[in-house]
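Deliverable D2.4 — example input (structure tokens):
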């Protein structure tokens, strides 16, 4: 017979009760099998993982309680505290120093304007809000020295206008190297003159004729103005409308003009070489001791002949010199005593040489007609002009290259052109073939100086020719 023990009976009762509870709630304990509750029926409930989890949670709550809650309390306390009231007190401002009080307003700034095409000086002044009286003061101060009445597009004017709209100063260029500044601050205008340095930059260009002279020049990088100058230089020896051939070539030494580091304009042809149909022509710019400048061949002979071979820039020859030609208007055969140069209406016509106008007016068949007597033997005639140049009349002296009229189709003509005649002792000669007298070369003393001047330019042409030959040989 076993001895009864109260503690043992109590433990047996608890075990029996636990088993009954587990059987009754078996599904719950299966879902919570990862805990220590079901590690074994015989083992007591284990709290290892649960204790760690509960301990960590408790510590976290303690930290939040000690840190976060006091912080919120301080914020709430700051928000609840009302800012102290602000009071504005008037303070006396000390007076400005006399130097600051009497200081002048900031100086006016120069305003630069460029003359537009067709714009007059009065229009330029009006656009700046200035009065005719301001314009008159400027003209009086310049005293006609700068030709302000004839402006060119692109000319620059600088205006200094005060705070009340008054003209304080005006500046402009009298010429490329001279700037004028007119000051109007006093009772009388004062003018100051400033000399401006010009810089010239030399270039060398080479071109080959494939179509026209202008196309070749532009391909070589030359401006139209430089091509015009080149044609004028060699125009006494080469007829660029009739004698130019594919393969002709040229080399040009020229300069461009700069001022204050900026391009101002195309300069001059300094030296040139032109090979036309295998014949070589040279030209060098030389200024004689008396200040006149001209172009001379390599041997010092002036290129400027006594007469221009063609006195107009034309597009084609519409009719040649002939002893018997069918007149296109009258339809009869009659002599044609000159050469007809077709050109647009209004194209300038130049005097072929120095001389005096012997006839100026209307001539039957020729329309507006001019005859120039050059010397005792030679005269030239110009017909079908649309109008005459201003200021010319019988007895006027003209110079070679001076404009005497403009191309038209007055009189008997089928289209705009210049009828040009060259007469020797009153008899017509063919202008294209007549022999013109050769000019005399430079005197010996000037010839030596000329040779010294052209030596470096001649070297540039020769060096350019050498480079061209090397390039073509490759």
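Example output (designed residues):
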């Amino acid at each position: 017979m076993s001895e009864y023990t109260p503690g043992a009976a109590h433990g047996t009762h608890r075990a029996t009760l636990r088993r009954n509870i587990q059987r009754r709630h078996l599904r719950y304990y299966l879902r919570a099998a990862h805990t220590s509750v079901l590690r074994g029926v015989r083992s007591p409930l284990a709290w290892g993982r649960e204790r760690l989890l509960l301990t960590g949670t408790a510590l976290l709550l303690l930290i939040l309680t000690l840190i976060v809650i006091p912080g919120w309390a301080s914020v709430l306390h700051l928000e609840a505290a009302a800012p102290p009231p602000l009071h504005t007190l008037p303070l006396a401002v000390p007076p400005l120093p006399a130097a600051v009080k009497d200081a002048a307003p900031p100086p006016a700034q120069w305003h630069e304007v460029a003359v537009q095409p067709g714009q007059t000086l009065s229009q330029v002044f009006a656009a700046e809000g200035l009065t005719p009286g301001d314009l008159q003061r400027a003209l009086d101060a310049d005293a006609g020295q700068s030709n302000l009445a004839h402006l060119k597009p692109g000319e620059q004017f600088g205006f200094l206008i005060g705070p009340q709209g008054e003209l304080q100063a005006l500046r402009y260029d009298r010429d490329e190297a001279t700037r004028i500044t007119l000051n109007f601050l006093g009772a009388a205008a004062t003018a100051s003159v400033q000399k401006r340095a010009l810089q010239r930059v030399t270039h060398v260009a080479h071109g080959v004729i494939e179509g026209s002279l202008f196309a070749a020049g532009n391909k070589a990088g030359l401006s139209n103005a430089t091509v015009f100058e080149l044609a004028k230089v060699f125009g006494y020896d080469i007829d660029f409308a009739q004698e130019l051939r594919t393969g002709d070539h040229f080399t040009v030494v020229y300069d461009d003009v700069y001022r204050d580091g900026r391009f101002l304009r195309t300069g001059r042809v300094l030296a040139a070489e032109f090979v036309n149909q295998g014949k070589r022509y040279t030209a060098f710019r030389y200024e004689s001791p008396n200040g006149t400048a001209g172009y001379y061949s390599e041997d010092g002979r002036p290129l400027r002949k006594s007469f221009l071979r063609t006195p107009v820039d034309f597009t084609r020859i519409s009719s040649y010199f002939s002893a018997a030609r069918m007149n296109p208007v009258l339809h009869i055969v009659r002599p044609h005593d000159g050469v007809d140069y077709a050109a647009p209406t209004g194209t300038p016509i130049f005097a072929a040489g120095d001389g005096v106008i012997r006839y100026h007016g209307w001539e039957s068949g020729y329309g507006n007609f001019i005859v120039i007597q050059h010397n005792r033997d030679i005269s030239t005639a110009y017909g079908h002009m649309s109008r005459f140049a201003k200021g010319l009349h019988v007895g006027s002296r003209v110079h070679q290259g001076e404009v005497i009229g403009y191309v038209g189709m007055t009189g008997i003509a089928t289209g705009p052109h210049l009828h040009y005649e060259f007469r020797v002792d009153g008899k017509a000669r063919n202008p294209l073939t007549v022999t013109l007298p050769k000019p005399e070369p430079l005197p010996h003393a000037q010839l030596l100086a000329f040779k010294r001047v052209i030596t470096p330019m001649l070297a540039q042409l020769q060096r350019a020719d050498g480079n061209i030959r090397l390039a073509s040989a490759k």
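The first helix runs from residue 6 to 24.
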